[in-house]
Amino acid sequence: MSVETDEVIREVHIAAAPEDVFAYFTDPEKLVAWKATTAELDARPGGRFRMDVTGRGDVAWGEYLDIDPPHRIKFTWHWDDEQPDGHPSPPAASVVEVRLIPEGDGTLLRLVHRGIPGPNRDSSAAGWAHYLARLVLAATGRDPGPDPWAEPRTDTSR
Q1: Which residue among 41, 80, 86, 117 is least crowded, i.e. fewest CB within 10 A of its CB?
Q2: Is 65 helix (H, G, I), strand (E, B) or coil?
Q3: Which element (helix H / strand E) includes 138?
């Protein structure tokens, strides 16, 4: 008997210190290196973020709930198309928690995304797998290359 869950859980090992990996969630230039085409971040509890993930209007936004550098970051997650009337959905609707655990010569990143509606679970799981693979490269100083899910850049600035 299988049990349905509203969570996506991903773990990856990154050959970088937790403090180096943490910055890829709080610094807009570093976030753009692996996850978005544009990003605005106010990385503090109660602060907000907004990013265009693909450059095609796939805009994610949320609020930072908890930040414990360099160990943990927790934030709400919404897509613009979830709110056509401009009203925010309940903060607990979808929450991402990232833990950065020292492991050997690097970091074990454990991501848990909770509260994902059933129809979105598979695409969220695929999205996190795709972007965390890019983070593994970016956080170790390697270029993850152009994101095949994103619009090609027309300029080279980030």
Answers
A1: 86
A2: strand
A3: helix 121-138
Which residue from 153, 134, 154, 100 is spatially nearest to 30, judged by alpha carbons? Answer: 134
pTM strictly above 0.90: no
End-to-end CA, the chain: 47
Q: How far is CA 146 from CA 45, 88, 131, in A?
A: 31, 32, 12
Q: Alpha-carbon distance 151 to 158, whole Å?
A: 14
The residue whose two tokens read 């970091």 is: 107
Helices 18-26 and 121-138: angle between axes, nearest 10 degrees: 120
Beta strand pairing status for 95-103 and 48-52? unpaired
Domains, the chain, in order of start with CATH, read: 8-138 (3.30.530.20)
- Report yes or no: 67 and 43 within 8 Å, Cβ to Cβ: yes
Q: Cα angle vertex 72, ends 54, 87, to 5°?
A: 50
